[in-house]
Amino acid sequence: MLMEFGKYKFEVTEEFPDNTPNRDMALAVFQAYQSYGFMAQLGWGYVISGLKNSVKIDDTDARKAIQQNVNEMIEGLGMLYCFSIWDHHMDPLPKGTQDTIVNEWMTDEERQRFLAYKHVRHSVGHCWSGRRAEGLRKEFEAEMNGKHPLHGLSWDETNDTIDMSGGGLALSCYQFLKDLSQTVAGHLMNNNKP
To answer: Is pLDDT larger for residue 9 or for residue 168?
Structure first.
């Protein structure tokens, strides 16, 4: 399958042999992995680094406030983009298959981190001004209170808000999803549940 991004074209694996264990799930997860690989070639690092998004005005206080909003928007858009790739490859699968992948083919740690990132993605997509979505709160809170909280995210437990303006959240989510899709595709293709 040829995926096109403007003038750039990338070849994505269309078929696995019929005897591949968990063939359809493995193919979908592997295609997600390939798509994450293309992201790096399509300006992802440039956008996330903030090089193109630097606010330049003389009023220092206004510049800081506007820059914080720009940073938060860029991180939020990155989160939406990361999960839109995952969803693009999972949506064609039969209903419930994505839940099977998450619940049976990821380790407990991978699942919790995946769902914590997904909570942030839902918060970005359905809330405003740092408010948190209702779904997946328990998984998010467990991850944030664990040994390795999500990088690039501040959680104000008192006001129950999140702040992504520090930078790095979308990039760490991207790297996690890329690595996770490769690992899960391997488990599926080898019929080896973690």
So the answer is: 168
Residue 10 pairs with which residues in a beta bridge?
3
Looking at the DSSP bridge assignments, the partners of residue 131 are 161
Q: What is the CA radius of gyration of the chain?
A: 18
List the beta bridge partners of residue 4.
9
**Could you tell me the end-to-end alpha-carbon distance of the chain, in angstroms, rounded to an integer?**
30
Q: Label the pairing between strands 161-163 and 154-156.
A: antiparallel
- So where are the chain's domains? 22-186
pLDDT on residue 74: 83
Phi (first) and psi of residue 4, to 5 degrees: -115, 135
Measured between alpha carbons, how far is residue 129 from residues 75, 117, 151 in Å? 13, 18, 19
DSSP 45-92: HHHHTTTT-----S-HHHHHHHHHHHHHHHHHHHHHHHHHHHHHHHTT
DSSP-based three-state secondary structure for 8? strand
Beta carbons within 8 Å of 39's beta carbon, 6+ residues apart: 81, 85, 174, 178
Total residues found in the chain within this entry: 194
Whether residue 133 is predicted with pLDDT greater than 70 in this model: the reply is: yes
Nearest to 156 by CA among 120, 127, 186, 131: 131
Helices 23-41 & 97-104, crossing angle to 10 degrees? 80
Q: Is 61 exposed, middle or buried (0-12, 13-18, 19+ CB in 10 A)?
A: exposed
